[in-house]
Amino acid sequence: MPDGSRIIFVTTGITTFSSITPNYLLYATCKGAIKQMTRMMAKDLVPKGIHVNALSPGPTTTEFFFQDKTDQVIKAINKRNPFGRLGVVEEIADVFMFLCSKQSSWVNGQCLLANGGAMV
């Protein structure tokens, strides 16, 4: 990878949330490992001019998110967010684009939460 390249992993906000249901245990564990990998790779690759970060979206309106969730569960998740809603894909894409841009030149080894303040 050339100098100035960016590696951006996608994790999840539930790695910072202790009230997840048991069916998310393996998913959250794997995504937590990605967060650690982000930090370690960032240290190793920064001398080569490569930035490594991760994006941790909160609940977002994707097909995957809606799988096996009732309307009641969705409403409860919306209530936990200060905005009272789920994030939309375009909002997550904007954060991703920031991490790809030169404006993020001083951001390295970070896992940015994009969740509307739901997990603070």
UniProtKB/TrEMBL annotation:
Pfam families: adh_short_C2. It comes from the Eukaryota. The keyword Transmembrane does not apply. One of its GO terms (molecular function) is oxidoreductase activity, acting on CH-OH group of donors. Keywords: NADP, Oxidoreductase. Gene3D superfamilies: NAD(P)-binding Rossmann-like Domain. InterPro entries: NAD(P)-bd_dom_sf, Sc_DH/Rdtase_CS, SDR_fam. Belongs to the short-chain dehydrogenases/reductases (SDR) family. This is Short-chain dehydrogenase. It comes from Trichoderma gamsii.
